[in-house]
Amino acid sequence: MRAPLRTPSRRPRSQLFKALRDVLGGDLGDEPAAFRQDAVARVVETIGRAFGPGGWLEATVRGFEHVPASPAMLVSNHSGGTLIPDVWGFAIAWYRHFGTNRPLHILGHELLFSTRASARFFSSCGVLRATPEVATEVLGDLKRDLLVLPGGDRDAWRPYRDRYRVNFAGRTGYARVAHELQVPVVPVAHAGAHETLLVLSSGERLARWAGLHRFARAEIWPVHLSLPWGLAIGPLPHFPLPARLRYLVGAPVRPAPLPYGDDDVSAFDERVREAIQRQLDELAAGALRR
Question: I need a labelling partner for 209 at 20 to 30 A (CA). Which of 46, 51, 57, 193 fits?
Answer without folding.
Answer: 193
